[in-house]
Amino acid sequence: MFFQQVVNGLTIGSMYALVAIGYTMVFGVLKLVNFSHGSVFMVGAYLTLQLSIALGGHFFLAAALSLLLTGVLGVAIDRCALRRLREKKADRITALISTLGVATILDNGVMIAFGSETKAFPNVLQLGKFTIGGTVVSWVQIIILLLALVLMGAMSIVVYRTKMGRAMRATSQNADAAKLMGINVNYVVAFTFFVGSLLASVAGTMYGMYYEAIDPLMGSVISMKTFACVVLGGVGVLPGAMLGGLLIGVVEAVGASYISSGYRDAIAFAILILVLVLRPQGILGKKVADKI
Fold first, then answer.
1. Residue 224 vs residues 21, 120, 245: alpha-carbon distances, Å
2. Is the dihedral of CA 59, 61, 66, 67 positive or negative?
């Protein structure tokens, strides 16, 4: 039972981690908690579903188009809701409230367009299961975990080994100085939102396949849980986002099994409070200060 819950926790934790990476990338560049990110996660799942229906069941083509459209949505959020505030040097709390407004618009927009009821989501990766020492593992779980690790590695390469990554870190440290050095800060921020939203769309699609259902409010719960993941791993630290997602996924699954499933959502927030009290910088925050 324990190892079964660990496997389940690693699966859901992988999806948390992908959303958390987008959170931490935006925070690393703008020092802003983007509370619309969970809604982008939800929109990505709905786009995949609706495009799959429109394209006659071509799921992977629909998923690819969803990634692109969700990335563009992320850029639009920055352009319409945040760039003007950034240019006016508005307080960060103002930008945070703006992202909350965007989240509300997206959530209600999806409910108006597609209804508020839960919708069935196709699982096109039903490749069977196998057993290891009494623990049942599906190939979908393996694929989700491996995909999350691959994307985490790819993002680490982008941030720490490329010219764009250097521009992102420079913008994070001092946006005005970055401008003086010839860096197009608005382009860097737009790129960050594009990539973060793309990852959220991947997570939303995987979430839909794993649970075989989606609903318009799933982004609000995921948003708060992944924020807890970011805080646990270390705000602004990419490996910390991955670690935090996996840890919270495992603790949540094990706790729901051995305590009560009714406490599933409360566990992540309990961890968030403990981390803020005992180690505010997170598990990896001290080692990688001022980096994304």
1. 14, 24, 12
2. positive
Token representation of residue 168: 């992102």
In a domain, 124, yes or no: yes
Amino acid at 127: L
Tell whether 26 is covered by a domain.
Answer: yes
For 190, other C-beta atoms within 10 Å of its C-beta total 18
Q: Domains in the chain: how many in total?
A: 1
Domain presence at residue 102:
yes
DSSP code per residue over the chain: -HHHHHHHHHHHHHHHHHHHHHHHHHHHHHS---TTHHHHHHHHHHHHHHHHHHTTS-HHHHHHHHHHHHHHHHHHHIIIIIHHHHHTT--HHHHHHHHHHHHHHHHHHHHHHH-SS-EE---TT---EEEETTEEEEHHHHHHHHHHHHHHHHHHHHHHHSHHHHHHHHHHH-HHHHHHTT--HHHHHHHHHHHHHHHHHHHHHHHHHHHTEE-TTHHHHHHHHHHHHHHHH-TT-HHHHHHHHHHHHHHHHHHHHHT-GGGHHHHHHHHHHHHHHH-TT-SSTTTTTT--
Q: What angle do CA 245, 81, 114 make, to 5 degrees?
A: 70
Residue 255 in tokens:
């706790």
Residues spanned by the domain of 15: 9-218
Vertex 106: Cα angle to 78 and 43 (nearest 5)? 90
Residue 183 belongs to a domain: yes
pLDDT along the chain (292 residues), means of 10: 85 90 85 89 95 92 95 95 89 90 94 92 83 84 90 89 90 88 92 93 92 91 85 82 89 81 75 81 64 48
pTM equals: 0.89
